[in-house]
Amino acid sequence: MTKKTNERDSKAWHSYAGRLLWAMRRAGKTNQSELARTVGVKPQSIQYLCDPQAGAQGSSHTPSLARVLGVEADWLATGQGKPLADAVLMAQDTAAPGYAAAAEQAMPVCATLRVASKPGEVEWLAANDETKLGQLTVPVVIDGAQAVRVKGDGLSPFVKDGQCLLLRKRQDLLEAQDTVLITLKDGRRLIRELMVDRQDSLLVLPVHGGQPETIDRQDVEDIDLVLLVLPRRWWRG
Is CATH 1.10.260.40 the right assignment for the domain spanning 3-93? Predict the structure, then answer.
């Protein structure tokens, strides 16, 4: 990474359009019309937000854009903080100011998350010696993370069939807009976006849209934080 490149990207991050364009390139979602359909806005809205000359200061759709592009909403909105949870950047992000590339890490895919018929509900199918699920070889290092592969498109556009999720056991308090895998004591597993973390309950939202719902904490067995959604190209069978 050259000093000139670092300074150029630092300047780009000073505008909403610059941050949005960077996030789109990083996520491989540079088609503005497709992004507009995914978020549920008119293509002209995305075109306006991406135009540096328009000088957009933000958008009411920032949380949705951040979720689809896999970046932090506060960073996209204001430029403050880190673009990614836990300051994890992929190798193609080495030009991002203030970050260094991580060494490659190979990790086995420990399970398949098969999307069930009920919206947002998944089945955990653990790998074993007879059903090896391959591995991810990615330039990212996250302590305590595990990789799972998704089967089915019922959670699209958040995650699609064949893509992988990096999960980590919750280590501290959850925050609004965290995506979580909730394991209930009755054996069900749910993928949800957290709205409010209460002492006795969780107010959550389906990742593919829908009405908020409340989950009692006494019904929760475990919670995993979804750190990253990785495209198929990082997986090796």
Answer: yes
How many whole angstroms separate alpha carbon 173 and alpha carbon 177? 13
Which residues, including other chains, have CB under 8 Å from residue 221's CB and lie 6 or more apart?
183, 184, 185
Tokens 């054996």 belong to 187
Q: Give this prediction's pTM.
A: 0.57
Gap between the Cα atoms of 77 and 66, Å rounded: 9
160 beta partners: none
CATH class of 105-236: mainly beta
Q: Which pair of tokens denotes residue 207? A: 């990742």
In the chain, residues under CATH classification 2.10.109.10 are 105-236
Tell me the angle at which helices 16-27 and 3-12 cross, rounded to the nearest 10 degrees.
110
Give the integer Cα–Cα distance in Å for 233 and 237: 11
Element holding 136 (H helix, E strand) = strand 135-138
**Do residues 192 and 155 touch, judged by C-beta distance below 8 A?**
no
pLDDT by residue (tens digit) across 36-81?
888 888 888 899 999 888 888 888 888 888 888 888 888 888 887 7
Q: What is the pLDDT of residues 150-184, one digit of tens each?
A: 999 888 888 889 999 989 887 567 788 889 999 99
Around 200, how many Cα atoms within 13 Å sit in the side-chain half-sphere? 0
